[in-house]
């Protein structure tokens, strides 16, 4: 009789090392994001608030191309396209060459992401049924901000096991894809088919170049920029261009370049180069231009938080995410008869679900699209997102922190390497380390492949 499937079981060694390196970058980006948001929030509530608003609303760009946009809009439409490009690369890599190419492993984070978006949307909708225009923002509490969540983990010094961190990252990536789909479908007010059709030309050329393994920036960057401009001109939110461009990039090395075992493919190479720009510049700058809201003292804060939009956002992020993700995980275990990994308990899932209630970047973006940047309702959105994120972070800390001793023990076991071969013993005990592209790669082969770090050229 086969052993039952384990939820949140330890992944493969190649995937674990890659995820660990990626999360370190996201954690740094999360800290910068928090700093950018805090500076904006403080600045917007000082006597110099008008200067902040003037800076955010400063218009730059050529009017002939309809690109005479405010700095705040450039941050939302332009810089976040970089963020979604990186998210698209990571999503494609996970499902083409990562551990999640196995449908059984992909089922849990996909189901959790869907549950974690559906339940908050339902809660928000129920709360705003009597609101005249509040229903427009139904998608605001559906997003998870992975960088912010990892920054919270770093602050509370919780040694979350690799499996839970990987799950959180994957959930957030699927979450981002669903969010960009929602933006493209539900927040496109007017659609111009001409520019959208024309956008397929530079997009196809970009795809042709990357499939031919061309990495020259002076070729790819203009094609990406033209694609972005045409998508922006079409009325579809320009961040969609970032995901479309990412999906054209090959994940696995060509046979001419040595095949899958010769080293990272072009998608991983691009991700390595562009993620620091996304995490270190694009997202923090967007947070700076989007988080500045004039609260107006305790009375103003109270007025904002009593608005049904803010109430729906807070309830969606805090209650909806926890119920949606935990409920979806329970349903997966119930109908597949899978069991939690032996070291984990259901409170760990609840704590992780609360952590996923930290919705910032994409939530603020959807709020601007739903109600218009600078509108009164958009100000309430900001207050709701900031309050919901803070409450979710505090509750996640309260649930996860008492389990830190257990997490520390798991982390120490995952890092132990008694034979000194560079591969932790727990992965040796699995009998083999499954590579990100070859499901039958042995531990020794994985060790050799780790040394092949040169990108395909």
Automatic annotation (TrEMBL):
Q: Which reaction does it catalyse?
A: Na(+)(in) + 2 H(+)(out) = Na(+)(out) + 2 H(+)(in)
Record's subcellular location: Cell inner membrane; Cell membrane
Which Pfam families does the record associate with it? Na_H_antiport_1
- Cross-referenced InterPro entries: Na/H_antiporter_dom_sf (IPR023171), NhaA (IPR004670)
TM regions (residue ranges): 28-49, 69-89, 110-129, 135-156, 168-187, 193-210, 281-303, 309-332, 352-371, 383-400
Q: Which UniProt keywords apply?
A: Antiport, Cell membrane, Ion transport, Membrane, Sodium, Sodium transport, Transmembrane, Transmembrane helix, Transport
What is its membrane topology? Multi-pass membrane protein
Q: Where is this chain compositionally biased, Basic and acidic residues type?
A: 441-457
Major subcellular location class: membrane
Q: Where is this region: Disordered?
A: 412-457
Role noted for this protein:
Na(+)/H(+) antiporter that extrudes sodium in exchange for external protons.
| NCBIfam families (UniProt xref) | NhaA
Give the family this protein belongs to, as stated in its UniProt record. Answer: Belongs to the NhaA Na(+)/H(+) (TC 2.A.33) antiporter family.
Question: What is this protein identified as?
Answer: Na(+)/H(+) antiporter NhaA
Q: Which gene encodes it?
A: nhaA
């Amino acid at each position: 009789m086969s052993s039952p499937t384990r939820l949140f079981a330890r992944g493969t060694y190649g995937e674990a090392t890659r995820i660990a390196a990626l999360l370190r970058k996201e954690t740094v980006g999360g800290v910068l994001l928090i700093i950018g948001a805090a500076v904006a929030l403080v600045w917007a509530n000082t006597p110099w608030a008008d200067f902040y608003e003037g800076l955010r609303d400063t218009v730059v760009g050529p009017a002939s191309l309809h690109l005479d946009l405010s700095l705040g809009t450039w941050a939302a439409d332009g810089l976040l396209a970089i963020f979604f490009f990186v998210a698209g690369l990571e999503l494609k890599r996970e499902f083409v060459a990562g551990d999640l190419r196995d449908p059984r492993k992909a089922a849990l984070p996909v189901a959790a992401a869907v549950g974690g978006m559906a339940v908050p949307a339902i809660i928000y909708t129920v709360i705003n049924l009597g609101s005249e225009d509040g229903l427009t923002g139904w998608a605001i509490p559906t997003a998870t901000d992975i960088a912010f969540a990892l920054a919270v983990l770093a602050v509370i010094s919780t040694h979350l096991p690799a499996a839970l961190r990987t799950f959180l990252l994957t959930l957030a990536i699927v979450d981002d894809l669903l969010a960009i789909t929602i933006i493209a479908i539900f927040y496109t007010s007017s659609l111009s088919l001409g520019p959208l059709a024309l956008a397929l030309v530079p997009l196809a050329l970009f795809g042709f170049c990357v499939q031919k393994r061309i990495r020259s920036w002076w070729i790819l960057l203009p094609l990406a920029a033209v694609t972005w401009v045409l998508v922006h001109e079409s009325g579809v939110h320009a961040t969609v261009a970032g995901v479309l461009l990412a999906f054209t990039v090959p994940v696995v090395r060509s046979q001419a370049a040595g095949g899958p075992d010769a080293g990272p493919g072009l998608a991983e190479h691009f991700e390595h180069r562009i993620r620091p720009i996304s995490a270190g510049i694009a997202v923090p700058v967007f947070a700076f231009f989007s988080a500045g809201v004039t609260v107006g003292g305790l009375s103003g804060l109270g007025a904002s938080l009593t608005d049904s939009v803010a109430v729906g956002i807070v309830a969606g992020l805090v209650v909806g995410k926890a119920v949606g993700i935990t409920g979806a995980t329970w349903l997966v275990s119930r109908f597949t008869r899978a069991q939690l990994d032996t070291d984990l308990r259901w409170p760990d899932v609840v704590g992780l679900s609360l952590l996923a209630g930290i919705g910032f970047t994409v939530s603020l973006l959807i709020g601007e699209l739903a109600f218009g940047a600078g509108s009164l309702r958009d100000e309430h959105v900001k207050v709701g997102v900031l309050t919901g994120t803070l409450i979710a972070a505090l509750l996640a800390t309260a649930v996860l922190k008492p389990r830190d001793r257990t997490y520390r023990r798991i982390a120490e076991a995952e890092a132990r390497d008694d034979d000194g071969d560079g591969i932790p013993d727990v992965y040796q005990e699995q009998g083999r380390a499954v590579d990100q592209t070859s499901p039958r790669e042995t531990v020794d082969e994985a060790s050799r492949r780790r040394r092949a770090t040169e990108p395909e050229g």
